[in-house]
């Protein structure tokens, strides 16, 4: 059932034909991953689904994964976190990548979508054309268009309904799915919270800064000696003395973004072990580069990041503008998923995107969510809402969950934002049972 097409470039591309229905399952299914049977779907789809007069297309890729005995099971489409990150590559031999897959395959065939602009889906790699043209192109990389890609893939597979699992930004995308096409969904599973609906990004970042202040102080209670190490490292960075292995200057704000690791299970330990190393050592430079958020592999993650919170708003570098006075006064308070425009000057992987990122920061983003549609969506849903989530605030997750009539939120302090993987499938198992009403809460 593999459908192939010529790969498309990063920028605007030529017109392509509409996707054809997939043939029945046959010997095209391949058994090259132990314990799994996989297949590929590659479709040429509109860049702008809402404008039939726009001839541009992109290629969208998805990998379908099943167990040998599960070829007739219903479909579950997985929506990856990010934004701008490709779907995980499946394996059952590494229980941590992805940790939830084995549990999902007990009930479903899983569709691992490389969201537009990522992985094998016409990846956004380097800017093409003028900054204005590239910025316009990237305005079509948000959740609204990703959902329409999902609908095209669903129709291509000849499936009337399927379930969806969204991790972090993938959950934001699932929320858009429930706003636009709830009739296509049999169930919705959210891991890592739900997006704020109708709130400006400034409000969201204000809450996440407060959360990172708590996480920073909690970290220093565990590792009190590290506070002086962080202070010294920030001072060294301010003097230009911290660099990556390839020579990029790591600014003081970039050093403080190491706090992003505190939002994942085991992240505090990783940061502590990094700070044991001498900043002048090769080991420190390489480990530092690996641990800094918003790296160069997936430039979309940085370039369109703030837009994922823009439910009808202009962000204007929201995180940088809303940094509270406590963070300005105390350089040992660590930031999380907060983006700063100066990084596009100092990070060689982000420098080509500086002008594009600035244009997108002042783009008036349209609404993503329809509150009336969400209130009317009769889709069984369950959400893992992590009490100490560093990235998706608890209060907004619960406010959004209350909009959905058949939502079953599960608030837990047992896991951090990566609980879906870290739990080895336990989080997804609970959500499936909640949505099926096998559990009350």
Automatic annotation (TrEMBL):
Gene3D superfamilies: alpha/beta hydrolase
Presence of the UniProt keyword Isomerase in the record: no
GO molecular function, one term: aminopeptidase activity
Compositionally skewed regions (Low complexity) per UniProt: 1-19
Keywords, alphabetical: Hydrolase
GO biological process terms, semicolon-separated: proteolysis
Residues annotated as domain AB hydrolase-1: 75-229
Signal peptide location: none
Pfam families the UniProt entry points to: Abhydrolase_1
Annotated region (Disordered), positions in chain: 1-24
Family: Belongs to the peptidase S33 family.
PANTHER family (UniProt xref): 2-SUCCINYL-6-HYDROXY-2,4-CYCLOHEXADIENE-1-CARBOXYLATE SYNTHASE, PROLYL AMINOPEPTIDASE
Name the record gives this protein: Hydrolase, alpha/beta domain-containing protein
């Amino acid at each position: 059932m593999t459908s192939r097409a010529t790969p498309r470039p990063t920028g605007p591309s030529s017109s392509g034909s509409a996707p054809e229905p997939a043939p029945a399952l046959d010997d095209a299914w391949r058994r090259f991953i132990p314990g799994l049977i996989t297949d590929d779907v590659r479709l040429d789809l509109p860049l702008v689904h809402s404008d039939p007069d726009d001839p541009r297309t992109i290629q969208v890729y998805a990998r379908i994964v099943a167990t040998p005995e599960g070829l007739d099971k219903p479909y579950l489409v997985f929506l990856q976190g990010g934004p701008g990150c490709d779907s995980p590559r499946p394996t059952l031999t590494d229980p941590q990548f992805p940790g939830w897959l084995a549990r999902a395959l007990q009930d479903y065939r899983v569709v691992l979508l490389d969201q537009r602009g990522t992985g094998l889906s016409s990846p956004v790699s380097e800017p093409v054309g003028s900054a204005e043209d590239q910025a316009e192109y990237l305005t079509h990389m948000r959740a609204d268009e990703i959902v329409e890609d999902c609908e095209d893939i669903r129709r291509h597979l000849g499936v009337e309904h399927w379930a969806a699992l969204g991790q972090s930004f993938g959950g934001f995308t699932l929320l858009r799915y429930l706003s636009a096409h709830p009739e296509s969904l049999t169930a919705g599973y959210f891991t890592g919270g739900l997006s704020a609906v109708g709130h400006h990004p400034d409000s969201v970042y204000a809450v996440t800064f407060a959360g990172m202040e708590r996480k920073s102080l909690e970290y220093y209670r565990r590792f009190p000696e590290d506070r002086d190490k962080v202070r010294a490292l920030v001072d060294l960075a301010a003097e230009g003395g911290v660099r990556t292995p390839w020579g990029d200057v790591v600014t003081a704000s970039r050093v403080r973004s190491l706090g992003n690791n505190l939002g994942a299970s085991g992240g505090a330990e990783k940061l502590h072990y990094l700070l044991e190393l001498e900043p002048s050592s090769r080991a420190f430079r390489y480990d530092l580069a690996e641990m800094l958020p918003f790296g160069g592999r997936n430039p979309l993650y940085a370039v369109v990041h703030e837009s994922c919170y823009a439910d009808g708003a202009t962000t204007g570098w929201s995180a940088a503008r809303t940094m509270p006075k406590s963070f300005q006064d105390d350089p040992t308070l660590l930031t999380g998923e907060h983006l700063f425009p100066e990084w596009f000057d100092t990070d060689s992987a982000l420098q080509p995107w500086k002008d594009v990122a600035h244009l997108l920061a002042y783009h008036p983003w349209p609404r993503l969510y329809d509150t009336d549609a969400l209130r009317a969506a009769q889709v069984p849903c369950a959400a893992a809402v992590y009490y100490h989530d560093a990235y998706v605030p608890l209060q907004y997750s619960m406010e959004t969950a209350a909009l959905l009539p058949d939502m079953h939120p599960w608030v837990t302090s047992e896991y951090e934002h990566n609980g879906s993987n870290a739990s080895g499938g336990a989080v997804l198992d609970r959500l499936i049972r909640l949505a099926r009403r096998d559990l009350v809460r």
